[in-house]
Amino acid sequence: MVALFFLSTFALFAPSLALTYYMDTSCNPYPAVGRALPEALTMARRSNARLGANDPDIQVAFQRIFNTGTDNGAAVAEVRRIMGGIADMTETNDRESSGVRIYCNEDRWSLQKDRERTNKLIKKNSSRNPGDQIWIDTTNNIPYAGPPGCKVQDRIGQVFHWPRLPLQASHSTMSLCKPWIEDRIATIKEQGKRDFSRLRLTGAGLSQLLSFIVLHELTHVPPFRTKDVHPAYEWNNVVSKSTADAIRNAENYAFFGLLAVLGDANYKLEHTKPEQNWSGLLIHTPTIWPRQLFNNVRSIS
Ligand SMILES: [Zn+2]
């Protein structure tokens, strides 16, 4: 019985390993989303490829971001599982069959209707504190406790899925919030020939790019399931984590993906001066490593 269960579970989930994403029409007014998504996938693809190629610059980035060397097979395997899975994602126009459904507003949510109470101690949904009220995504059948996604001021994005039930977890949704989706420079590619040397990752600039934000959110999606491990954001916190926390924290993957793509544009982390170790200083590197990998990469400039 147990064996049969595992077999049938595997059969059910094996085809869904290559995830598809669906872009809701609510994102149509925000073309920046359509530009950021491919770059987020490129960040994941380049992370995976460079990790698989004994690339010395990405080994430095890995050491800094995941607080362990690329000789840590388990850590490398987990990062490659997540980045490889994101890299393999493809777009579909069919919401029903899609694995990840991307939204640019919260119109799909309704407060759960009050039920006939069998236990008088349980408050009606409509009279609870806002943080305890149950919302239902009526389009995708996903519940959430508290104001979802962009209904919370200053939230950048959020991923929703059923927390435990494996069958229901086969799809998830992502909310992307204003002002981050409004038309602006959304990708590294759109920065043209900008000189990134002497820039520090401790600054907010590159981690506010929409492609960076989308990669962060994609790593939360099942089956990747990263968390926001407090304090989750900003370079200083990312590089201060233990390996166990770094490997679970979404923002660490976003920075790693960022460095993988910056490498294609001839930028890497300064790492020869110990005093610069944690500063996230970017320097220009004349050689791209290894060259043969870059034949199929679109030019960033
Ligand atoms: Zn997050």
UniProtKB/TrEMBL annotation:
What is the residue range of the signal peptide feature?
1-18
A GO MF label: metallopeptidase activity
Which keywords are on file for this protein? Signal
- List the protein's name: Lysine-specific metallo-endopeptidase domain-containing protein
